[in-house]
Design a protein that fits this description.
- By secondary structure, this protein is of the alpha/beta class.
- It is 25% helix and 19% strand.
- The protein has seven helices and twelve strands.
- It has a five-stranded mixed sheet, with no helix packed on it. Strands 7-6-8-9 form a four-stranded parallel sheet, sandwiched between helices. The protein has a three-stranded antiparallel sheet with strand order 10-11-12, with no helix packed on it.
- Strand 11 and strand 12 form a beta hairpin.
C-alpha cells in the first residue's frame, strides 16, 4: 500500500484491515470458520500485533513465530493496513534461529505450575516424576508470579489467564479428563524421556529419598512391616511411601499415560 495512504489511515483513525492465518494447534482457539485459513481482521490506529492476536482469542504464550508480509517480527510490531500475518506455535524440530523467536527460552521444559482447577492433573504428572507446583488456594497473580520467578510453564484451562502481560510460559490444556490431560501434556512437551515414575511426592511434589526401615519403624503398620523392607520418604513434607497393594494399579496407570503420550 502507498506510504501516504497508510499514514492517512493511521492519523485519521479510519478502519484498516489485515489478513491473519494461524497454524497447527493455534487453531484450537479460533471459531471453526477461521481455522486453517486466512481471514480478515479490521482495526483502527496501529495496534501491536500481540494485542491483535490475543483479541482474536490466541494467548501470546502459545505463539513462537510471527511473519508479517513474509518477514519475522516481534510482538511489539505495529499493524498496518494490508498486512498479511502468519502466526505459528512452538516448533518441535525446525530450526528458526535466524528468525525472531518469541519464546525467551524453549517452551518445552519439564517444570510446571498447575492452576487450582487441575489438582488431579498435577498429581498424575507428579506420579510420572515431573516437577509440578500446585498451590490449592492461589489467585491468578500468584500463579503468574510463580511461573515467572521459578521459570515454570503455567498449565491452565483459563484462556484469559494465559493472556496476562507478565506471563512468558504457559499452555492451555485442551482435554477435560485428568488422564487425557496427562497424556496431552506428555505428548505436547515431549516428556516421555523425562519421566521417572514414583520419584516424587504426590502431595507436595518434592523428591523422594530412600530411608532405612529402622528409622521409620514407628510409622509403618505392623502388617506392612512384617513383609516389606523398602521405604521412601518425601524430602519436602516428610510423607512416608512404600509399595503396597495399590502399587500395581499405579504402575498400570503410568504405562497407560506413557503409551498414549508417546504416540
Amino acid at each position: 500500500m502507498d506510504e501516504r495512504l497508510s499514514q492517512w489511515i493511521l492519523e485519521s483513525g479510519a478502519m484498516a484491515q489485515a489478513t491473519f492465518r494461524f497454524y497447527a494447534e493455534l487453531n484450537d482457539f479460533l471459531p471453526a470458520e477461521r481455522r486453517g485459513r486466512g481471514f480478515s481482521y479490521r482495526f483502527r490506529g496501529s495496534p501491536a500485533v500481540k494485542d491483535a492476536i490475543e483479541a482474536l482469542g490466541v494467548p501470546h504464550v502459545e505463539v513462537d513465530l510471527i511473519l508479517v508480509n513474509g518477514e519475522s517480527v516481534p510482538f511489539s510490531y505495529r499493524l498496518r493496513d494490508g498486512d498479511r500475518v502468519a502466526v505459528y506455535p512452538v516448533f518441535e524440530s525446525l530450526d528458526i534461529s535466524p528468525l525472531i523467536r518469541l519464546r525467551p527460552r524453549p517452551l518445552r521444559r519439564p517444570a510446571f505450575v498447575a492452576d487450582v482447577h487441575l489438582r488431579r492433573l498435577a498429581r498424575l504428572l507428579r506420579l510420572l516424576g515431573l516437577d509440578v507446583s500446585f498451590l490449592p488456594h492461589a489467585e491468578d497473580e500468584e500463579l503468574v508470579e510463580v511461573s515467572v520467578r521459578e521459570k515454570r510453564i503455567l498449565l491452565t484451562r483459563d484462556r484469559q489467564l494465559l493472556k496476562h502481560g507478565r506471563l512468558t510460559h504457559g499452555y492451555f490444556v485442551r482435554a477435560e479428563q485428568p488422564l487425557e490431560q496427562a497424556r496431552e501434556v506428555v505428548r505436547r512437551f515431549d516428556l516421555v524421556g523425562e519421566v521417572s515414575p514414583f520419584s516424587r511426592c504426590l502431595e507436595c511434589g518434592a523428591l523422594l529419598t530412600k530411608v532405612r526401615k529402622e528409622e521409620v519403624a514407628d510409622r509403618i503398620p505392623p502388617r506392612t512391616a512384617a513383609w516389606l523392607s523398602e521405604y521412601v520418604l518425601c524430602s519436602g513434607c516428610g510423607k512416608l511411601y512404600w509399595r503396597g497393594t495399590h502399587f500395581r494399579r499405579l504402575e498400570r496407570l503410568v504405562a497407560e499415560i506413557l503409551a498414549r503420550g508417546s504416540g
